[in-house]
Amino acid sequence: MKIALICDRYPPRPHTGIGAFVQMLARGLHQRGHRVLVAEIGEQYGEASDHGVPVFTLPRTGVRWAGNLITRLRLRSWLAARAGEGAIDLVEVPDYPGFLPFAVPGCATVVRLHQSSTVSHRLAGLKMSAGIRFYEKRTLAANPNWIGVSSHILGLTEEAFGLSPKQYAVIHNGIAPLPEADVEPPDLPACFVLYAGQVSRRKGSLVLAEAAREVLPRHPDVHLVYAGGCLPEPGLPPIDRQIREILGSLSSRVHFVGQLTREQVLACMRRALVFAFPALIDCFPLVVLEAMSAGVPVVFTSNPPGPEMIEDGFSGLLANPASAHDFADKTSLLLENPRLAAGLAMHARKRVGELFSLEQCLKATEHFYEECLRQCRQPGVAHYLQRTLPVPLPHHH
């Protein structure tokens, strides 16, 4: 197959879930014999190669008001030209932030639901940009072949947009076996609980700080480390300042190491006592799979998709992300019971290998791509709704 993957966060940009996943997908499909290219949206045009995968950077248009539309039309034209040359026959695009509101002629297009901006804002109770919502809805409507990285995100997307796909599959994010080579991490304390990812309210960063206010006094040698960039929030103080204010006299034991490479994050994970991630809003975070695979015991959210990823009490612990006390108790339990922590970490690593391997993700993706291409090449055949989930989609209220 000749595949184009669309991304706006492709490495070596700072470590993010979507960017890291698209890179693994691109390299994996390339290694399996497909012709793959990546088109990313950036500041200026550029061409590069990543392990044999050509990466094209298409410039974002900064024109006021019309910039978002022009950027998307240029991307569509670029893809259509390559489809016309026979260089691509299938495009995969994320739901965020609605890059393809118009179908690409001559191509099958798949939308992978990681978590649209519309869904994120809806869950957080925040006002949504009408423009981005329009582009995201148009992208989903124009390209009704969807891959959900969890069954949870499929249901949320249907509800948020009032749309249903013509065919879909649930294909959980997968990761390759972690590299053995260990880069030197930032200067870290000897004993610490780790949070990795965007430091923001919706990812549970403040909940974790509240939990740490209970955990740290119980464990005088333990520190709290945040690995990731701090997200500015309009009208609010910087989130690192909010976290220090929550911790008060304990703030000397919280550390912000900033945005790291994936290799540096993995190095931090391998040294952590516990990985705690009380995400209030997430769909299937790659960083949790990486922590499970790195051998650190995990405390994750009991809200979806937590139960899809972790068997509570067997391959990790699930806690209520709205309860700092619950997260504090579960984190302390692991700090106080090394044997329990080691058992959870062992089962977590096994679970990733059995259910969330990149190999499984690639095979399922290939199968879905082939079905989409088959239907695209039969324009006279009706596209019937194909539910590939073993169970009905959950209803969300």
Structural overview:
This protein is of the alpha/beta class and 397 residues long. The protein folds into two domains: 2-176 and 360-387, Glycogen Phosphorylase B (Rossmann fold), CATH 3.40.50.2000; 192-355, Glycogen Phosphorylase B (Rossmann fold, 3-Layer(aba) Sandwich), CATH 3.40.50. The protein is 41% helix and 18% strand. It has 13 helices and 15 strands. It has helices spanning 17-31, 67-84, 117-124, 130-142, 151-161, 205-218, 239-247, 262-271, 286-294, 306-309, 324-336, 338-355, 358-376, and strands spanning 2-7, 35-42, 46-50, 53-59, 90-94, 108-113, 145-148, 167-170, 192-196, 223-227, 254-258, 274-277, 298-301, 317-319, 386-387. The protein has a nine-stranded mixed β-sheet with strand order 3-4-2-1-5-6-7-8-15, sandwiched between helices. A six-stranded parallel β-sheet has the order 11-10-9-12-13-14, with helices on both faces. β12, α9 and β13 (298-301) form a beta-alpha-beta unit. Mean pLDDT is 91; it is low at 381-397.
Which secondary structure elements does this structure contain, and how are they paired or packed?
Elements: E1 2-7, H1 17-31, E2 35-42, E3 46-50, E4 53-59, H2 67-84, E5 90-94, E6 108-113, H3 117-124, H4 130-142, E7 145-148, H5 151-161, E8 167-170, E9 192-196, H6 205-218, E10 223-227, H7 239-247, E11 254-258, H8 262-271, E12 274-277, H9 286-294, E13 298-301, H10 306-309, E14 317-319, H11 324-336, H12 338-355, H13 358-376, E15 386-387
Parallel strand pairs: 1-2, 1-5, 2-4, 5-6, 6-7, 7-8, 8-15, 9-10, 9-12, 10-11, 12-13, 13-14
Antiparallel strand pairs: 3-4
Helix pairs in contact: 1-13, 6-7, 6-11, 9-12
